[in-house]
Amino acid sequence: MADTTQPKTTIIVGAGVFGASAALHHITKHPTSSITLIDRDPYTAPTRVAASWDWNKVIRSDYLDPTYTRLGLEAQQLWRSSPVFQEYYHESGVVWISPSTFGRTAIANFEAIGADVDVEMISVEETKKLGGGCFAEADYTGITEVLLDRSSGWAEAKEALGSAIRAAVDAGVRYVAAEVAGLVFDEEGRCAGVRLADGEVLAADRVVLCTGAYTPALLINSAPGDEKMHAGGRILAFGVTEGTVPLEEGKAGMLDTMPVGINDNPLGRGVDAGCLPLPKQGEIKTWGQILFRNTVTHPLTGEVISTPPVAADYNQWDVPPVLKDDARHALKSLFGDSISGEKMNKFRICWDAATPSGDFIVSPHSGCEGLFVATCGSFHGFKFLPVIGKYVVQMLDGELDAELEKKWAWDRELPPTEGNKQWPTREYREFMGQAAAGSGLS
């Protein structure tokens, strides 16, 4: 029997974590629906600008917020068991070095919900012996105990993302590789589809924006004169630097037993730094501690927003020396002088979207009927790839849990960002040594 409860056509813009997962869950729940997934890059492209396109990502459920603890545990079950994802998941364990109470709070969250997780606080000396002593020279300043979660690990990110999209396409989702220039509206102001960069209009009963760092610019480009359409202070595009370093033949064997390493030290540099193993490549991937925005003035409205650079690839491979050093410093924070950052051979700037609270947005857009927003991974969204689409579809169907509906709403109280070290304050141009890095607005 045909599913008559759903709109006939749905367009999902953006094939990153939110878009890929939403497309897969939507076609699974409503197999007669017509779903189009649009992204500027083919999902088979050798590189993409999506934050979720990456060498690898951390998969964990350790959180201060129990909402994400539960969601992380749900996702991990699918990382372990789903034929779409399990091939790309590696349960290496995760070590988190932090002078804060993060570890104890994370464990308390597991205990409160009765989760069966192999996690504990261990001593610095025990940490130094893990993985054949890989973190023996880490920066343990101010550290008396370390969080060890043996039930977590990492995933081959671009491969897992591609697998999710292939599964959606195989199930009937239409994939279109094209640049979306803006939204289109009918005479009543309802969102009626999207306009591509070549002028073609694709019509739909509803549009879901899973557009990450591009979201603020896309909304202004679509309706420059309608402030209620704009993201305002809800969304900030921001970046962090990643790099990879090849290991010498004598050290490459450590990658098979190396846990993911995360270190808050040194505290003065910014947020946490991290290192993940890449055994197939014989490399280690790092991310740095400096978060930055790219503030520009929109030429049509004069509104100040942050958005990725204007280049088609967001200039993601054009990494300034200071940011390369930041990625190198992640190695030092976890490996000391035992692995040299001078041999790092690939660097990338990863652009994502953040909210002031770090919570996602999964919500109808209050300023426009037929328009929905599911984005803002805030650099912790990838781990939820197997499940976040379920909640996006629940939102579209009007079935989302009331607490999540409030937590992820488009219109919600925004906390202050002053004193929030997770909120980027430094500017991309500061590292580029130029007046502006491009707006990405047209």
UniProtKB/TrEMBL annotation:
<dbReference type="InterPro" id="IPR006076">
    <property type="entry name" value="FAD-dep_OxRdtase"/>
</dbReference>
<dbReference type="InterPro" id="IPR036188">
    <property type="entry name" value="FAD/NAD-bd_sf"/>
</dbReference>
<dbReference type="Pfam" id="PF01266">
    <property type="entry name" value="DAO"/>
</dbReference>
<feature type="domain" description="FAD dependent oxidoreductase">
    <location>
        <begin position="11"/>
        <end position="395"/>
    </location>
</feature>
<keyword id="KW-0285">Flavoprotein</keyword>
<dbReference type="GO" id="GO:0008115">
    <property type="term" value="F:sarcosine oxidase activity"/>
</dbReference>
<keyword id="KW-0560">Oxidoreductase</keyword>
<protein>
    <submittedName>
        <fullName>FAD dependent oxidoreductase</fullName>
    </submittedName>
</protein>
<keyword id="KW-0274">FAD</keyword>
<dbReference type="GO" id="GO:0051698">
    <property type="term" value="F:saccharopine oxidase activity"/>
</dbReference>
<dbReference type="InterPro" id="IPR045170">
    <property type="entry name" value="MTOX"/>
</dbReference>
<dbReference type="GO" id="GO:0050660">
    <property type="term" value="F:flavin adenine dinucleotide binding"/>
</dbReference>
<comment type="similarity">
    <text>Belongs to the MSOX/MTOX family.</text>
</comment>
